[in-house]
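Ticket #4471: structure export looks truncated?
Reporter: QA, pipeline team
Priority: medium

Steps to reproduce: submit the single chain below to the structure queue and open the exported record.
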Amino acid sequence: SVEELAQMVQQVDEVITEYDQKIEASPDATERKALRSERKYPKRVYKQLIDLILRKQKYQKDFEILGERNSYSKTDLDATFMRMKDDYMKNGQLKAGYNVQIATEGQYALAYGIFPNPTDTRTLIPFLNEIEKHYFPLPKYIVADAGYGSEQNYEDILSNRKCEALIPYTMYEKEQKKKYKQNPFHPDNWMYDEESDTYICPNQQRVTFRYRSVRTDKTGFKRELKIYECENCSGCPFRSSCTKA
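Actual output as written to the record:
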């Protein structure tokens, strides 16, 4: 910590002061030369510690500015670096910007909000909070595109706000495609036995439920997952197509 580094600086400074006093009190030129040589190391350490304190203070200030973000612009501290749409040369643009949210009904803009978060998924909840606080009570149905579909958002709308979420999840459109539905290596397409809570993989092996796992994401939201495991993957001809594990 900065406090610990400051204590170390004080201790090293005391050592340097002792050397200064010895050099000033010594009448022998050879001894003074030897003492000055010995003093070089603590003076170098003192300089390094001061540099560490300045760096530490700068990092603390950076983290205060960042908050929950992963970047900020040095020319506009409230702006966050975001991946913009490709330009006419098909180059992805990483630029400092803001995430503007607009709530509409019948093509009328009812509310808006400006956020430093680059993803729509994690912007929905704070935007709904702003609408309730500054604009109007939320309607029964909250409609948004798949960019807002997440378990955390569904739970917040259904449980906390008592509204209906008409928001498709991220994989919804992909799951409707014929290529996805006919992929034998995707677990969603495996045969499932509800009674034993078991899937049958393309190699006719049983993939059984083992345990539940709770994972916490960056926002602190906890997701409960069910972990399944195949009874035997050794020598399976489909292993490279089925899993990367």
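Status: closed, not a bug. The export was complete when the record was re-opened. Leaving a note from the reviewer for reference: The chain has three domains: 2-66, 98-166, 182-242.
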